[in-house]
Amino acid sequence: MRLAVSLLALALAAPLSAEEIWVTNEKDDTISVIDVATLEVVRTIPTGERPRGITFSKDHSRVYICASDSDTVQVMDPETGEILHDLPSGEDPEQFVLHPNDRHLYIANEDDAITTVVDTETRRVIAQIDVGIEPEGMAVSPDGKIVITTSETTNMAHWIDTETRELFANTLVDSRPRHAEFVHGGTELWVSSEIGGTITVFDVASQAEKAKIAFEVRGVHPDRVQPVGFRLTADEKTAFVALGPSNHVAVVDTATYEVQDYILVGRRVWHMEFNTDKSLLFTTNGVSGDVTVIDVARREAIKTIKVGRFPWGAALRPGT
Amino acid sequence: MNFLVKSAALLAFGTMACAAQAEAILAVGYLKQAVVAPAVLSNLDPVPETLGVDGARLGQADNQSSGRFLGHSYVLDVSEVDPGGDLLAAARTLLATSPYLILDASADDILRVADLPEAQDALIFNASAQETRLRDAECRRNLFHTLPSAAMRADALMQVLMAKRFSRLALVAGEHPADRAFADALRRSAAKFGLKITGEREWRFDADMRRNASQEVPLFTQDLPEHDVLLIADETNDFGRYIAYNTWLPRPVAGSEGMVPVAWSRVVEQWGAAQLQSRFVKLAGRDMKNRDYAAWAAMRVLGEALTRTGSTDPAQLRAYILSPEFELAGFKGRPMSFRHWNGQLRQPIPLVTDRAVVMQAPVEGFLHQRSELDTLGIDLPESRCTAFKE
């Protein structure tokens, strides 16, 4: 009886929408949509040129895509896959972050050394902030007061005050910073450095460096251990860090900054995304053109899913 | 006010955050000895007049972008000497204002400048001469090399040929000194990696190959012994372009033509290189070449050193760039650093055709106890350079 009821519930739920991971394929100009229940690609949607950063609006009714070589941010209806309109993004948008107000997109313009702020409602550029060369990593504090842009060649994290939209601090990190996240309720900022091979941890209140996390994969030369994207579990006790061409994901204790484990995934692992209950982690593997599914509790890779060429970004679309 | 106090506190921590107070100016001289280019058969590819200089300019702009957040400025002073002009006088003038000098000149001219009494405490970067001897017996304490040596290029090529199991090689070399030097590097490297050069021919034609390559080259290569790949040593780009598809045996060509080991090429696009390429094209209106890359790297080395140390003192910067702490992100997938025994920038070498990267050396499987990058070029145990021993 209970089975019948849950089957019925499933039957009712299924047509609405399944839980999905959306993956941008940088060299195919497409998005691969993975069904979390079946772990299979169910849709492939065309985008503008060189799609990289991807994020959903708060209610998941819109998906924003950095179409880098089309010099635009595309706004797509995730239901139909139709491009609704383009946002003025500045040149070569690579990565962005949506402010907690669900309205302002902070966009890194990789070729222009600028962070562009776009109002997604009026579709206007409301500010452009000069940052270092090749801005890429973008993060916003949980209270929305600080936005971070990291610059790959300048090797800095630039701290933007979202009230004044001006820089209030610039902090050096190791070579080629790629990704930034606020951790522990916004009291810490983590910045990964691809060539430096480290994550620098800053105390947000003082912008002072607090710790540095280093990685060491057995049998892989240190030069190839290149931290890029990373994500934290729901309790923020554990971080998963993509280590690029070492083809591993590191598991880091966020209290002690110690690496607990390394998980073998596909080649040149780049970014990652959890499913809704954060029991599964999906990593984009650029060179092998696939996505590795990691069982978060067991810390094991359980499946490889073929997607398009050079998968880059990943974003969750929860089921309804 | 609050902001200033905070910055001061951070400086005390040594994090160098918001160090707008630490004003510093780093001036760099760029000295080019113009040469009369040797005559070549084809006029298809003229050498850009701003070769090298444009790379230094981009390096300056890249440095400046970090510098403005730290209160550091970078000045580039370009000086060009006409063929036969007084290079040493120009070098003295530049060294009088700054101890940092990027040189675009021949190997012998570079040594003349490095040996000037005024240059003894300077940091000179060789961005133009691939002669291995400058990194070996003829190395100088004040001379660093951002351009890969001929030995590094040859080793990169041999690793790729070995990975592809092309073990029998034949060699065609020109008679220009640069061709002979590169041919020597290829021979030494083939021996190092256990590949066999089965036969050699020297290019001595003086005919115009645009008209008769298809008739001459098959005969020229006909009596070479059996080989898998034909190596070409033609560093002035004279005859090499006429060899491919005209050989007696259908064989791929590599070396100065075909698959070429380079410091840089427009076809390098991975590891964020696409961004460096587009910045360069925007600045120079042309593609970035080997010497541009070497000059860019020299500027970036100095920028990285000032950023991390906050110092403009040449002795301090020299010590820093030779230390294990130094690393440069050079858009070739691995951090680059200097060999402490001869001042050569260790770096990956892409093997390229006109249209794509074939492979990049060091090739997987070539291991080294210190850095796989040291499988390319002169390694510590074989180095005859003594100037870097303190």
Automatic annotation (TrEMBL), chain A:
Among the Pfam families in the record, one is: YNCE
Residue ranges of the YNCE-like beta-propeller domain? 7-105
UniProt keywords (A-Z) are: Signal
UniProt superkingdom:
Bacteria
SUPFAM superfamilies per UniProt: Nitrous oxide reductase, N-terminal domain
Q: Which residues form the signal peptide?
A: 1-18
Which protein is depicted?
PQQ-dependent catabolism-associated beta-propeller protein
Automatic annotation (TrEMBL), chain B:
Pfam families per UniProt: Peripla_BP_6
What biological processes does GO assign it?
amino acid transport
Q: Does the keyword Signal apply?
A: yes
Highest taxon of the lineage = Bacteria
Q: Which range is the signal sequence, renumbered to this chain?
A: 1-22
Q: Which UniProt keyword terms apply here? A: Amino-acid transport, Signal, Transport
Q: Which residues form a coiled coil?
A: none
Q: Where is the Leucine-binding protein domain?
A: 87-202
What the entry lists under InterPro entries is as follows:
ABC_transptr_sub-bd_PQQ, BCAA_transport, Leu-bd, Peripla_BP_I
Family recorded in the similarity comment: Belongs to the leucine-binding protein family.
Q: Which NCBIfam families match?
A: PQQ_ABC_bind (TIGR03863)
What protein am I looking at?
Answer: Amino acid/amide ABC transporter substrate-binding protein, HAAT family
Q: Per the UniProt entry, what species is this protein from, by scientific name?
A: Ruegeria marina
